[in-house]
Amino acid sequence: MVVGVPKEIKNNESRVGMTPAGVFEMVKHNHTVYVQSGAGVGSGFFDKDYQKVGAQILDTMAEVYAKSDMIVKVKEPIREEYNLIKEGQIVFTYFHFASSETLTQAMIDSKAICIAYETVENEDGSLPLLTPMSEVAGRMAIQQGAKYLEKPVKGKGVLLGGVPGVSPGRVLVLGAGTVGVQAAKMAAGLGAHVTIMDVNMKKLRYVNDIMPNHVVTEFSNELNIRKHIKSHDLIIGGVLLKGAKAPNLITRDMLKEMHPGTVIVDVAVDQGGCVETTKPTTHEDPTYIIDDVVHYCVANMPGAVPYTSTVALTNVTLPYALKLANMGWRSACNLDKTLAKGLNIVEGEVVYKEIVEAFKWEPVLA
């Protein structure tokens, strides 16, 4: 199969869909790999690194799309790429369709095979291709939140870890999944007081078992959330509904109950956000303020640490990319039910029901 790795063109996205090590494995299996010139530079991988392992370098994105049977990316295609995608072409990347009807319609129109990293799902419900980026984003959420609590950037002026004689900052984490656990771990490491909330008691018991005593768990409901937002300095939105739009756990009216300078980091922004006032931002302009509450809603947080993120991503995506290249998407998905869950749009039809539900469309599935 001919595999293409284009350069990411989303604002401040420096990751790349495949490392040279990944390309080496593809070439070893007799596949042709085209890499767009400069695609890996942001992650510390140069054209010569790809050429050494057998990749062919093409100058333009259009050439990569035109010559490839499968495109391996990081982020969803944006408007400039829509017309480059061919009918029947496999596009293997993060899509997060439920947050964008425009993207969804464009991919329907393209009649491509859209396989979304974020919905590839194991039998136990875990998401192997989303997990490493969730780990990065969860850890970064505390790093960024701590920075934006500083007064010069309109935060409360709170040091998360406190100092002797001064209470530490208070962090509220919504969701005890991968993002939430990693955020709680980082916040706890800084010495902050952490409250982590979820509706899944099994997850809360797990957190209670592994975290130190200054991380406390509480069942998530509106009354409890309203109680805690008044006293916490940093709020992390880490709620995930697989392939679906995130629920609004914090509504616009709740902002007025928060102390001025409170910081919200909504990691769920890719799926529409779990805060009603969330709107996607970029690393170039990451924050905005509503009702004196600082919102950090960067839609590609791991893109700020591209070397770590790219290596972590290729580690988990490569085995599936190899299956697709070796067997074709139909055979690969028939034999691997985990990979089959990644099918979102196939030749013009939405085959993932949560996308249909997100836009309240009429079901197309039998």
UniProtKB/TrEMBL annotation:
Residues 4-137 form the Alanine dehydrogenase/pyridine nucleotide transhydrogenase N-terminal domain. Pfam families: AlaDh_PNT_C, AlaDh_PNT_N. It catalyses: L-alanine + NAD(+) + H2O = pyruvate + NH4(+) + NADH + H(+). NAD(+) binds at S134, D198, K203, S220, V239, L240, V267, A268, V269, D270, V298, A299, N300, M301. CDD domains: L-AlaDH (cd05305). Keywords: NAD, Nucleotide-binding, Oxidoreductase. GO terms for cellular component: plasma membrane. InterPro entries: Ala_DH, Ala_DH/PNT_CS2, AlaDH/PNT_N, AlaDH/PNT_NAD(H)-bd, NAD(P)-bd_dom_sf. The active site is at H96, D270. GO terms for biological process: L-alanine catabolic process. Its EC number is 1.4.1.1. Gene3D superfamilies: NAD(P)-binding Rossmann-like Domain. Substrate binds at R15, K75. GO terms for molecular function: alanine dehydrogenase activity; nucleotide binding. Residues 149-297 form the Alanine dehydrogenase/pyridine nucleotide transhydrogenase NAD(H)-binding domain. Belongs to the AlaDH/PNT family. This is Alanine dehydrogenase.
